[in-house]
# Entry
Amino acid sequence: MAPHALEPEDRQRDADFNKAYHGTTAQKGSGWRSMFGKSGEAYQLASDDYWRHWDEKAAADETPEVRAARREQYASLTRQYYNLATDLYENGWGQSFHFCRFAYGEPFLQAIARHEHYLAHQIGIREDMRVLDVGCGVGGPAREIAKFTGAKIVGLNNNDYQVDRATQYAAKEGLSHLLSFVKGDFMQMEFPDNSFDAVYAIEATVHAPSLEDIYREIYRVLKPGGVFGVYEWLMKDQYDNDNPQHRAIRLGIEQGDGISNMEKIAVALEAMQAAGFVLELHEDLSDRPDRRPWYWPLAGDFQYMDSVWDFPAVLRMTKIGRSSVHRVLGVCERFGLIPRGTQKAADSLALAADSLVAGGEQKLFTPMYLMVARKPAV
# Structure
């Protein structure tokens, strides 16, 4: 298969936009404070750039040409999505932007950390390794895996604001000697061949326009004998693109999560092997018989509560919780405290949540297809 065309990078443009829009808000720490003090004009530019890919492009009217156009601008689509959504993610979910499995009575943040530990364990990350985190977000998983293993981790991210946030959090936790974060497109990394002992990606390579191409690029920077582990977002075998309801669920996930092109499990397995990897382990962890499913924090269903401490997490995703957030953001927009359009971005995340829950309940989608693969030693 011919490599997918790469979107040209413009680091100076991205840095200038980051300064114009986010200003110094990356240094404000976690919480709602980081949402205030941003440029409304720059926000509108990011919003327009993102929503042109989705507005008036319903699932019923989707064509191969529309999907191809999104793949051609995969990098800018994802970068602008995270310009709009990063603060909402941090305030609503935490600093590790991924799902996880839940043991009985396990608190949310503990489950998130265990999911990260499990991947590091399966890969075999150790203290003497140099490791690449592909699509590192604001560095939550990198910080946790560095503390768990002692490895030196380089986080790669195509969004300047997230790189700034990740760098700040690492310094705050005294982890700068183990962690570094760099700006770059994971489809065209600047690292030399054979640079890393191990590579991992947690729900990030779904943003690639081609799984085979991103896996080939990871293969290139991985040392011979090194291991790549990934939690991949994939549509399951039951997904039927000719089914309007299935297609609407898939498009709702893509739109609400900044994804240009989601694939099925078979495509990912074929891509891993085509890239040259020897697949050592693959499993859909969402099929494990857990009492609480991976999507329970999004469902707003009190049946999933194991303790009173789960009440806030469930309440925020109920109709009352969502409508309250919608109204608060609307008031903040009206008084100019946050950029106009923030409410629309939050509503899109709510649509994504509904689509993710529907995809999980109907066994159409998984956010945790685990693949562990090795680059041959010779």
In short: The chain is about 45% helix and 15% strand. The mean pLDDT is 93.
